[in-house]
Amino acid sequence: MTDPRTPRGPGAREREGSGTRALLRGIAAALAGCAALPAALAAQAPDANAVLDHAVAALGRVTSLRADFTQRIHDPMLGSDETSTGELLVQRPGKFAMRWRHPAGDLILQDGQALWVYLPSTAPHQAVRTDLTRSSGQSVDFLQEFLDRPRERFTVAYVRPDSVGARAADVLSLVPHDANAPYQRVLIWVDREDGLPRRFEISEGSGAVRRITLDHLRVNGPIPASSFVFRPPAGVRIVNGGP
Question: Are the beta carbons of 107 and 230 closer than 8 angstroms?
Answer without folding.
Answer: yes
